[in-house]
Design brief:
With 205 residues, this protein is of the alpha/beta class. The chain has a single domain, classed as Rossmann fold (3-Layer(aba) Sandwich). The protein contains four helices and seven strands. It has a five-stranded mixed β-sheet with strand order 3-4-5-6-7. Strands 1-2 form a two-stranded antiparallel ribbon. The protein is globular, with a radius of gyration of 17 Å.
Amino acid sequence: MANGGCRNTSVEFTRFGEIASHGYLVLAVGRSDIPFMLVNYNGGLGVTGSNVPSKTTAPLQINDPDYIIRALDWATAENNRPASDLYEKLDTTKVAAFGQSCGAEQAFRAAKDSRVKTVVGLNGSFPTKEITRNPDPGWTADKLAVPAALFEGFPADLAYSGAEQAYKALPATLPTLKANIESRRTCRRLCHARYPLVESRYRLP
């Protein structure tokens, strides 16, 4: 799971313990000693309140899919290590990469790894050919070969237009789901939300 705003923190995703309670292993990339950051879109990086990380030398923002891949490497190694609490308890053939906002792009780029079988964006989008800022221009939504889901807000969501564009760019034969809820930031309500507007495409047998 990759964070919004490209924030290098896992603090925001404690709510995904609900998903873990159903038997899934949830790995939130980012540090636990960096508070949740607010991105200043005027060019600087601010923090909430007085929670300024004074001693960390770690980057406050990341958008490198390698962080997700390293988490997957760790889980795979733990599943194979006899002394691990996770020994032979994980099905490493069923891996999903999640990302919220900026993290959706990070998750999509991680899906280039063949071990990732599903990719999910929460009020975020996947790179398309039209997006020039893509750090991996050869890897765009039209190239995806695994099922995908996009959970969006309505047009008030900053990521809405990009997500709509990404959904249209996904291969027509790919199993996909797009869900909309009237909210600016869908991740805030993910665990308990009912999405009234759902569009999906399924590959026929």
